[in-house]
Design goal:
single chain; 370 residues; alpha/beta; Rossmann fold; eight-stranded mixed beta sheet; two-stranded antiparallel ribbon; 13 helices; 10 strands; 35% helix; 17% strand; globular
Length: 370
């Protein structure tokens, strides 16, 4: 099942490295999980596309509050979730939730923000600058410095929100947002604890290819990115990467679960008009020299990293976890049987993730913790 936004716009999920691998594949690889029924963003007043999403604010329940704030001169759009029976005269711990690459706040970031609000937290999920509903041109710039600044900006805003105890601030990063959350938390000590879900190291993948499969073409791809930057700065057309218009058969033949199931999630079952996986080719100049694990030993706060046991992205979480030597309070939790994308929406896997996030944040976001 698809909705109109999918039929009208085949939004990009796949980079040229994935396409090159796809053409080398023979036959068709099936989805490992039957797709969910499509969620239509037009049927939700807040355009949320996840299961159990809020449809109206009601007294005594978790409520959602769309907000806009300035960050480096740009308008950032976000959703703040407040717990049931929220009273601004009381104090609450808060959690910032960073969305995946190409994702928006109405998808998996919103799901986990809402679930955490159900546990008594004030939470925020914001669209990255230059992406989704937030400001910034050209569109779909995807530079690590900007994504990291987005996370600092969520902290700036939510710690001033009525009722938030700024001393009890946590951070949850999902997929690419997980890699950027690790980077932000290295130096931003306002975050008292950090969790990641299905962490994706954007720099490593853009540089080396998924599964480190494109190392041989690093220099040629850097040359292409340099040319795109030169053309952009000269006033020419802005070039984009990650833009593909593949048939269902081509998608099914892709060699990685992340790409096959990502197509189902982002283009079909949880499609949203603000979500796109294309990014300016010139962004690769920044992405390819960056790595989420650089100086990760600067993280000295409690760290929880969650990933699916069957995720083909698991190697990135395991690598980062091993390198995070600055904290002794750390745990790697593998959700048995889950792939990367399945942690975004499959109820039993979301419940499993929440089963770890709930006690982790309850333990680490307590009054008086240093």
């Amino acid at each position: 099942m698809t909705n109109d936004v999918t039929n009208k716009s085949r939004r990009a999920f796949l980079g040229t490295s994935a396409l090159a691998l796809a053409t080398a594949m023979l036959g068709t690889l099936a989805m490992t999980t039957a797709p969910a029924a499509a969620a239509d963003y037009r049927q939700n007043p807040f355009t949320l596309v996840y299961d159990g999403a809020i449809t109206k604010n009601e007294p005594g329940k978790v409520n959602i509050h769309p907000v806009t704030y300035k960050l480096n001169g740009l308008d950032i759009v976000a959703n703040v979730y407040t717990p049931a029976n929220y009273d601004p005269s009381r104090t609450y711990p808060a959690i910032a939730v960073a969305h995946p690459n190409g994702g928006v706040k109405e998808q998996v970031a919103g799901l986990y923000a809402q679930r955490l609000a159900e546990q008594g937290y004030i939470t925020i999920a914001a669209d990255a600058a230059y992406q989704g509903g937030s400001g910034g041109t050209p569109r779909s710039v995807d530079k690590p410095a900007f994504r990291i600044e987005d996370i600092h900006g969520m902290a700036d805003f939510i710690t001033r929100y009525p009722g938030v105890d700024a001393a009890r601030l946590g951070l949850l990063g999902i997929c690419g947002g997980g890699g950027y959350s690790l980077a932000a938390a290295k130096t931003d000590k306002r975050f008292q604890s950090i969790a990641t879900l299905s962490m994706f190291n954007s720099g490593r993948v853009r540089r080396n290819g998924y599964g480190d499969s494109q190392i041989a073409t690093i220099q040629s791809r850097l040359q292409q990115a340099s040319g795109a930057r030169a053309q952009e700065m000269a006033g020419g057309d802005i070039l984009y990467a990650g833009d593909a218009n593949l048939t269902d058969a081509q998608i099914a033949a892709l060699p990685f679960d992340l790409y096959r199931q990502g197509y189902e999630y982002y283009w079909k079952t949880h499609a949203h008009p603000g979500s796109t996986f294309k990014y300016t080719t010139s962004s690769l100049l920044d992405l390819m020299r960056w790595d989420a694990t650089d100086q990760i030993e600067l993280i000295d706060k409690p760290l929880l990293m969650i990933a699916g046991s069957k995720a083909d992205s698991l190697y990135m979480t395991e690598d980062a976890f091993a390198k995070a030597t600055g904290t002794a309070d750390k745990e790697l939790f593998k959700i048995d049987g889950a792939t990367h994308i399945e942690t975004y929406w499959v109820p039993r896997y979301v419940d499993a993730a929440m089963g770890k996030l709930t006690p982790f944040f309850a333990r680490t976001l307590v009054s008086g913790r240093s």
